[in-house]
Amino acid sequence: TVILYARKDRPVVDCLARVAAIYGHVWTDADIRPGDPWRAAVGAAIRRADVVLVVWSESAASSAEVGAEWRQALAAGRRVVPVVTDAAPIPAELGHRQWVAVSSSCQ
Questions:
Q1: pLDDT higher than 90, residue 17
Q2: With CB atoms 3.0 to 4.6 Å apart as the test, which of 43, 45, 56, 73 could cross-link to 52 if both were Cys?
Q3: Selection from 58, 47, 44 nearest residue 12 by Cα
Q4: For the segment 29-55, what is each residue's pLDDT rounded down to a tens digit?
């Protein structure tokens, strides 16, 4: 499982990662080693993943990087699950997928 997110959503990511770890390995950008090219590392993780969780929020909606990453996951044919944390409109490409609502105070 790979979790894609905007930096401001890190507390929610930590919570999701703890839950998802019950089912297997969870990858986030915290797994990128210092000095590694981060875009390549994210791309490789997406290509290896069975499931990609996209933490969707106002912050994610305004992030070009998050947008590029979830589009890459869709193009790679991964199961992409939007995890909605606030009222940010979900893009059409994600909106037709079953999504999960999580409180931004997930602990």
A1: yes
A2: 73
A3: 58
A4: 999 999 999 999 999 999 999 999 999
Say how far apart CA 44 and CA 35 lie, in whole Å: 16
N-terminal to C-terminal alpha carbon distance within the chain = 19
DSSP secondary structure code for residue 52 in this structure: E
Q: Which amino acid is at 99?
A: W
Determine the Cα–Cα distance for residues 7 and 45; give it in Å rounded to an integer.
18
**What does the block give as tokens for 2?**
């790979």
Picking from 76, 99, 103, the residue whose alpha carbon sits closest to that of residue 16 is: 103
Q: How many CB atoms lie within 10 A of CB 74?
A: 17
CA proximity to 68, closest of 98, 49, 34, 91: 91
